[in-house]
Automatic annotation (TrEMBL):
<keyword id="KW-1278">Translocase</keyword>
<keyword id="KW-1133">Transmembrane helix</keyword>
<feature type="transmembrane region" description="Helical">
    <location>
        <begin position="201"/>
        <end position="220"/>
    </location>
</feature>
<dbReference type="InterPro" id="IPR018086">
    <property type="entry name" value="NADH_UbQ_OxRdtase_su1_CS"/>
</dbReference>
<keyword id="KW-0830">Ubiquinone</keyword>
<keyword id="KW-1003">Cell membrane</keyword>
<comment type="function">
    <text>NDH-1 shuttles electrons from NADH, via FMN and iron-sulfur (Fe-S) centers, to quinones in the respiratory chain. The immediate electron acceptor for the enzyme in this species is believed to be ubiquinone. Couples the redox reaction to proton translocation (for every two electrons transferred, four hydrogen ions are translocated across the cytoplasmic membrane), and thus conserves the redox energy in a proton gradient. This subunit may bind ubiquinone.</text>
</comment>
<protein>
    <recommendedName>
        <fullName>NADH-quinone oxidoreductase subunit H</fullName>
        <ecNumber>7.1.1.-</ecNumber>
    </recommendedName>
</protein>
<keyword id="KW-0520">NAD</keyword>
<feature type="transmembrane region" description="Helical">
    <location>
        <begin position="320"/>
        <end position="341"/>
    </location>
</feature>
<dbReference type="GO" id="GO:0003954">
    <property type="term" value="F:NADH dehydrogenase activity"/>
</dbReference>
<comment type="subunit">
    <text>NDH-1 is composed of 14 different subunits. Subunits NuoA, H, J, K, L, M, N constitute the membrane sector of the complex.</text>
</comment>
<feature type="transmembrane region" description="Helical">
    <location>
        <begin position="131"/>
        <end position="152"/>
    </location>
</feature>
<keyword id="KW-0472">Membrane</keyword>
<comment type="similarity">
    <text>Belongs to the complex I subunit 1 family.</text>
</comment>
<feature type="transmembrane region" description="Helical">
    <location>
        <begin position="173"/>
        <end position="195"/>
    </location>
</feature>
<feature type="transmembrane region" description="Helical">
    <location>
        <begin position="257"/>
        <end position="276"/>
    </location>
</feature>
Amino acid sequence: MENIFTGIAAYIKGLLAGAPPWVQTLGMGLMYLVGVLAFIFLNAIYLIYLERKVSAYMQQRLGPNRLGPHGLLQPVADAVKLLGKEDIIPRGADKWIFIIAPVIIFIPAVMVYAIIPFGKGMIPVDLNIGVFYFLAVASTTTIAILMGGWGANNKYALLGSMRSVAQMVSYEIPLTFSLLGVIMLAGSLQTSQIVAAQEKVWYILLQPVAFLIYFIAATAEVNRAPFDLVEGEQEIIAGPYTEYTGMRYALFYLSEYANLVSVSALAVTLFLGGWHGPWLPSWLWFLIKVYIMIFIFMWVRWTFPRIRIDHLLSFNWKVLLPLSLANILVTGVGIKIYQLLTLGRW
């Protein structure tokens, strides 16, 4: 069970052994892409079902229970419904920006998975600047949301996208700073090296404040309650998604759940020991930890009410940012004290 996926990759690599180098590189790249897309689509489809069930349990409802056993086929029915919906482009919209925004938002949602170690030896691209790559690519999501709001030529959509820019750009700063403590401890930006450094002690035990800051900032980055101000339906209908229908709307929705899985996977990689765990295969341990993180995100969403935009930004600049900077300072001092005690020098 441990080597099932690495075995498949090795078999495909063996089939391409006699081909030119560029064909081998292209073939393996396509294999990784198909694997990541399958992982994203399967997770997105059934995380929607899981979220409905979790919210129903917390609100003393039944949730989906009609289509299939325990409602398990409800996501399939939703997908068929979205495929059959009419594709409407508003008359006054900036047509090309309106059309490509859903595609652009999905691209970085897929690209960030390139540096996620799904198990021992199961990382598509082991970059030596993996964490930096993740943060850089994920930050481009803001552009697509702004394009969707601007291209729709709708006041509510534009207002929602502008709030998104303010929120996501602001919370990227403490999110990045929260990861610096982990990077200082591991001495590397390479995700595989960070996981390897947690073989004995998970970094959540050494960086609990950083983990809390990361969790709060990541909740804001993926636009989930109580920070889902991008689509505050009581105020701005659905924000930048207001004018979208059918599969264009579905791509926005799909990218939201893809981002939820990716920030959960990064949290597991940097704070929860990655694929380390006893008895079970490494990839199974990784998935278990990821789904625990996703459940906590859902738990928070269905527990706290949406907060105001001024409170949201004030909390970021006045609380999270100073706290993240203080954590970096304390971590640096702690590392130097540890070096002095163990090595006898700074």
